[in-house]
Amino acid sequence: MKPDKQQLQEAEYIIYPNFWKNILLSLGCLIFAIIGILQLLAGKNDFIAWACILFFGIGGIYIIALSLHNYFQHIPAVIIYKDRVERCTPTKNNHIVYFKDVERFRLENVSSSKQIIIDYKPEVLENRFNSASIFKKSILQFNQNKVGGIESIPVDNLQIKPAEISKLLDQQIHRYNDSN
Hints:
Layout: H1 5-10, E1 13-15, H2 19-41, H3 47-73, E2 78-80, E3 84-87, E4 95-98, E5 102-110, E6 113-120, H4 122-131, H5 134-147, E7 151-154, H6 162-179
């Protein structure tokens, strides 16, 4: 969801998605969909051909549509404020993490992507688990076991390098802690 003008004026840093990287990713998806179509035209009416067409075709079209929407509407991916970081999502609710709840941010490789892991303070972590539904608890527990944190910010397809974003977040959380 696009933040309003007042929020953007309060922002310390605004980080946008890398439009061209997302377009290349979507073109790669569409190539796999075309391969599935070619398999069907060659007479191989099998599950793999249909799976390629549906999964990669729909995924590629979705990435293109979302990238174009974000580009023309000037919707950022991550906004860093003095007291919080906000990850903009395609849905109506952006994900906000307040620095008062965080011990630190750390950059990690998760499978083949770079993500900034959010290490919450113990009391906040316990509160998140206690207030979560059974389904969400299982997801949080999986994330905790996999990467050592319950939430993360994906930073691969952004206009700024992941290490620079991690450095910005470290600076902001230190400024916040020093002022409070």
